[in-house]
Amino acid sequence: MQRPIFLLVSDDGPRLAALRDDLSRRYEADYQVTTAASAAAALTMLAVHAGSGAEVALIIADEHLKDMTAADFLARAHGLHPGAKRILLIDRGQWAAPHPVIAAMAVGKIDYHLWVPWFPLERNLYPPVSEFLAAWDKTREPAHVAFRIVGPAHSSRAHRLREDLTRAGVPYRYVGDGSEEGRQLLREHHLDGMPLPVVLARDDSVLVNPSHEDLMAKLGFRSDPDLRTCDVTIVGAGPAGLAAAVYAASEGLSTVVLEPEVPGGQAGTSSLIRNYLGFPRGLPGDELTARALDQAWLFGTNLTTAPAKGLTVRDGRRLVHASGGEIDSRTVVIATGVSWRRLALPGLDKLVGAGVFYGAASAEARAMAGQDVYVIGAGNSAGQAAIHLARYAATVTIVVRGPDLSATMSSYLVTEISKTGNICVRLATEVTGVRGQCSLETLTLRDRGGGATRTVPAAGLFVMIGAEPRTGWLPASIGRDDEGFILTGRDLQRTGERPADWPLERPPLLLETSIPGVFAAGDVRHRSIKRVASAVGEGATAIQLVHEYLRTEQD
Ligand SMILES: Cc1cc2nc3c(=O)[nH]c(=O)nc-3n(C[C@H](O)[C@H](O)[C@H](O)COP(=O)(O)OP(=O)(O)OC[C@H]3O[C@@H](n4cnc5c(N)ncnc54)[C@H](O)[C@@H]3O)c2cc1C
User: Fold this and answer.
1) What is the mean pLDDT of the chain?
2) In the beta sheet, which residues pair with residue 149?
3) Is the beta carbon of 260 within 6 A of some atom in ligand 1?
4) Which residues, at least 6 apart from 13, have a Cβ–Cβ distance to it below 8 Å?
5) What is the tally of helices (H) and strands (E) in the chain?
6) C-alpha–C-alpha distance, residues 56 and 131, integer Å
């Protein structure tokens, strides 16, 4: 098989040769490292590769091209090889001027940059290039998979399994049960007539129509807590809960984390987080949260795959009720975040997982190749989802109830959307109907100004219309605002009074709820910032306050 291609483009002969040699030494076994001495020559080569079906992985262009601006060259290269990662080579020490790389990255004309000089190689060239390759590789069908799911194309069960495996970062392949390969796999494993979907693991084990819990167990997550008594129970393993777990466990507290899903929370579903400190090229949300999970585990956190179902206080102890039993805990950190608000339309619920998705753009994007898809929502999550889906779908339409996007979406996303040819934004519009037999087929759109309606074909509808706090499991004694978000610290004393039933002399600590020793962090908290960095900051702060609480408890 032909090796995927790196194409390096520069008019500067010695620079081009040096980069080719440095990259060849490391990557030549798996990739062909090729060069072009001008943008025009590079475009001709790319057209030939596109015609022959050759795979181009990386295009690295010098910022000083004579025959075309590098950003324009990379934009045209993208037309020929939409999957290739585009990298601009720029000279160091250009902090002052508004560099073209900034604008080009904001409108999605380039993906990354590399600094010149790129020495030492082991620090400044190979790690970033391997990162670009990892991002490129993620957009392809994996060559080796840990699991194959065989089942009907449109089934909410299969969707759930795909979502779990995507979030866990486990390579898998989905095979339709009606395809030749699907029928053969079922035959080979003596599964004809069995309930579908089935999951075939690399170790030859088979899960027949597994539940979410069965798959989680297969992935190594445990549903019974190892510890029944601990210093702190953290409920939820999104960024806030994972940060709390890392700090609690690393500072010697016995720590249990309860989380029914693949850990990562909302951040784990983000295709690219660009505003997290220290990652100038951005990083996929599942990678960030997988690293955090590793870190929490290495410090000795006990992770239990189960939801918290209740919380009571008895004899000065906090009892967290989980499916596997009670956890007797000195303190609790609630980090249950938010979930997507549901869209109330007749017939929609039966299509969830069969063309209609809440979030889930990462798991389903590849399945949308060549199709017309719709995203409802005007926030950053909707914007990111649309951009990610546009890499695969024929068209992506963002449906927005309001008159413009800029009030609710970051400007870098609005700009990127306006420059992405296959994304269209329909303002002042709402979805008023969905139809489909086995899967979504059409949507009805209504113009909120004139009231005109029209029905359009649609293979996917991604609903991202705001969020609700996940606080339904909590007792009434945890004070909340009108929308259900948890009140903490000074917000509990808006009238200047302590909360009713507050038993202590001191006022509630910064992130403390109306029950002493129970803290809240992240999106679930009243007036939280709703960003990964703030959730992480609050998770860490909550543990500082746990220490303070435990100290005063001992006094
Ligand atoms: C698609 C998308 C893209 C985003 N992109 C960005 C971005 O680029 N930059 C940025 O700063 N922010 C981004 N955000 C926002 C960011 O992800 C959130 O602000 C952040 O994840 C909040 O973290 P959290 O830990 O408070 O809550 P969450 O991430 O919501 O995690 C809460 C966790 O609690 C679990 N849970 C819920 N109920 C229970 C229960 N009863 N028992 C046990 N566990 C429970 C949930 O399963 C979940 O894992 C994005 C959000 C989305 C959805």
Assistant:
1) 93
2) 174, 199
3) yes
4) 37
5) 14, 26
6) 16
